Amino acid sequence: MVTVSRRRITMGVVAVVLVGLGVGLVWFQPWKLFVDETVREDLPTAAAPTASAASPQRPAASVAPTPAAPRTVASGELISHEHTTSGTVKLVRLPDGTHTLRLENLDTSNGPDLRVWLTDAPVKQGEAGWHVFDDGRYLSLGKLKGNKGDQNYALPEGTDLTKYTSVSIWCDRFDVSFGAAELTRI
Predict the structure, then answer these.
(1) pLDDT (mean) for 113-117
(2) Does a structural domain hold residue 146?
(3) Residue 31 confidence (pLDDT)
């Protein structure tokens, strides 16, 4: 009788350990540390408005001139926080007046639930900068497409770029910055 009870306790402990291990694997996703996802996107292009965009209510002369090519309006270099991170961040105005955030030569670790955030937080070196990006205003531009390469993130129409001063590669699962860049207006 004692061995049956001991066997049940042992099976219960084994079951709890296996469930805990399964939950831990799903939560931490440690395999991502060994898997790189490389993205190679070209800078998007958008057609510039032409005189045909005029209407009876809006004559062609009132159409504001737009640049013929994409123009970088702010940029910065990524620094490392929780994980070694490097690359260039650019805010680019497209010929149609929309804006895109571009990551070039990104190189960081892969991880669970990584996001690209446009923020108003100051970029701080080392551990002091790991947790500051969710303290103030931030705009999530979506999931990080890959931990290496060149990629684009469209900014929502009407985004006030004067309210944002930095970009973070943010791990939403653990509330920590993998790396960040201060944006300098050009």
Answers:
(1) 96
(2) yes
(3) 56
Beta bridge partners of 74: 91, 185
Q: What is the pLDDT of residues 16-58, one digit of tens each?
A: 766 666 555 554 566 566 789 999 999 998 654 444 444 445 4
Please give the pLDDT value at position 164.
97
3-state secondary structure of 72: strand
Q: Which residue matches tokens 């653990």?
A: 174
* 143-172 burial: b if 16+ Cβ within 10 Å, else e: ebbbbbbbbbbebeeebeeeebbbbbbbbe
- Note whether residue 138 is domain-resident: yes
Domain that holds residue 69: 35-40+64-185
Domain annotation covers residue 47:
no
Query: What CATH number did the domain enclosing 179 receive?
Result: 2.60.40.200
In a domain, 45, yes or no: no
What is the rounded distance in angstroms from the CA atom of residue 54 to the CA atom of residue 73?
A: 27
The domain total for the chain is: 1
Query: What residue type is assigned to position 10 of the chain?
Result: T
* Res. 7 pLDDT band, cuts 50 70 90: confident
